[in-house]
Amino acid sequence: MTLTIIENSPKRRDKLVIMAEIIDIAKKGTSKTHIMFKANLSFSQLKQYLSLLSHTSLLETSAYNGRVIYKPTQKGLEFMERQQQIMDLLNEDVRVYRNGVKTPLFDY
Question: At a CB cut-off of 8 Å and minimum separation 6, what does 4 contact?
């Protein structure tokens, strides 16, 4: 499953969305640098998120060829799935019918 963001969403990402993106990026196991570039985070931001995700048991680390690899836990995968369900619900609710046509509820 790949995380899908709501169309026309504000430019700033919510912390929960960023957390789910990091978990999605790390699904097959990846390095800190790879996560940083794919999630478009600074190193400082990345360290905070990785610390939080590890502390809450959403990500785990392992060593592979002398490198630290990040991989989601079962709890992390469930978090990502639930986050996607919430985004899907919001995506449905963002549109209302006007004259029989589904249109955006808000003008972002």
Answer: 84, 87, 88, 91
The answer for residues whose C-beta is within 8 angstroms of residue 108's C-beta and 6 or more apart is 8, 9, 10
Six token digits for residue 1? 């499953």
Percent of the chain with pLDDT strictly greater than 90: 62
Low-confidence ranges of the chain (pLDDT < 50): 5-9, 108
| C-beta of residue 26 within 8 angstroms of C-beta of residue 62 | no
Task: Report all structural domains of the chain as residue ranges with CATH numbers, in order of start.
Answer: 15-101 (1.10.10.10)
Which pTM does this prediction carry?
0.74
